[in-house]
Task: structure prediction
Amino acid sequence: MPVPIPIAILGFSTFDRKALASYFQLTGGARRRYAHVLPLDNAELVIADADEAGVLELLRKLGRVKDALFIGAAAPDEAAAWMMRPIDQVQVLRELDAMLARRDNPRSSPLPLTLPSSLGRGALRTIGAYDLPDPPSRRADDEAPRRHPARLDPVEARRREREALRRPQIAPRVLLVDDSEVALHFLQRQLQGYGLEIDRARHSDRALDLLTHHVYGMVFVDLDLGPESRIDGLTLCHQIRYRLMHPGGRPPMVVMVSAFHDPVDQVRGTLAGAEGYLGKPLDLVELDRLLGRQGFYRQLSPAASGPRPSAPDRR
Result:
């Protein structure tokens, strides 16, 4: 068996880091095997969070930008590879394979790689030897192309970074899905401090109905939705991410909330399309970090600012 190729993961939330590391454990067969290592010096390749401040600067100081796959809104020109969120297991592994192929055979063209047949016959295409359009340089909903702050004047770059961190990246409306009224009330109280508009659903049918009529930035879904729901939290997450038509044109970020702390459950949530994971009892520090990455910050005076009223669940 070949020696696993060490990969370092720089930045990201705890949930994303565990999910990325789990991708390596799920590989097998003819595919190269990778292993997550903590010391950056021991890694041959790096997966870096392009949206986290300080990551690019650190990689440049260490001379490792050319070894990095950046995941996020933008990446430097000298990066080895770049992909946008949401994080997709197949694309991550494909990009790592391509990086190794270019490193091991710098003068040869990469072999064409076929996308999985599970995507459907009409979606099949190949990449590598064939001409494909360049990857998008910005998100579809951006008003203008985005330049990485490192290419600007340092003072201006720091100012823009601070502004970007304070600016919400998604719609300021969230949906909470849980069969427990106590859990819904507690999570709602915590989120009201961030000035968010909050809707609640106690079963899957109500959640799907709200999702087809309103634009949400985030959906918090409990793993176990109880006997009143026709589907569980994982199935609901998959439908939200991959099957449901959303009024806003793109699916919201799904955060799984569960009393189960088994890493397997977190991996299952990632494969279903979840981009975050919160345990019960609720970790308020992790919640604050998760919301902060989306540009939402706890208001210093919630009473003075007046949180928006929630839409009651009458069903």
Remarks:
- The chain has two domains: 5-112, 173-305.
- The longest strand covers residues 5-10.
